[in-house]
Design brief:
alpha/beta; 6-stranded mixed beta sheet; 5 helices
Length: 209
Amino acid sequence: MDKIIGLPLGALASNCYLIPAEEDKVIVVDPASTGEVMALIETNDMELGAIIITHGHFDHFAGAAALHEQTGAPIYAPELDSEMFQSADKSWAWFMGGTPFAPITPDHLFEDGEEFSLFGVDFLALSAPGHTAGSCLLICDRFDCIFTGDVIFRSSVGRTDGYSGSPSLLRETLKKIKQIEHNYKLFCGHGDTTDIDTEKRTNPYLLDM
């Protein structure tokens, strides 16, 4: 595996991303289920090295507990969404079509501006509240991309009516996104991949800034 692979998983087709790393490891972002992720990793003769969660909605971490139990891979997640990882109600677990709620206790809680490296792949976590308090942008310069979770989508943005959501904070986050000068590819939590320049030109929520 030599490139990032996206898998739409679970009842809400949440995008899970598999990132190739050193030592034949794979870093998984937002696993909504387990079987498909492990099958792809094993098919490529690799091992799960770490799990990263972008925010506290269950459709983005439903498979994390089982993956952690099966492989021992550590879970990295935003500190400000800690309560959501333990609560079916706060994490909107009912949207997952009857998938039993599986809480997680992250091994590492990251904060705004924190940098961390996993098997040779560096990440910068930038706070991007609005969809949830802990929503973040994960910048990965090695692959010239940002994992956006549900902060921004192609021509749309994440909803703000859930636990810790805030329309005003999302608006401030979108202003920050509009100020990003480099044309990063955007790996979104749902839907198609896009990029910064395309969203600046076409996303109605950014045009309104």
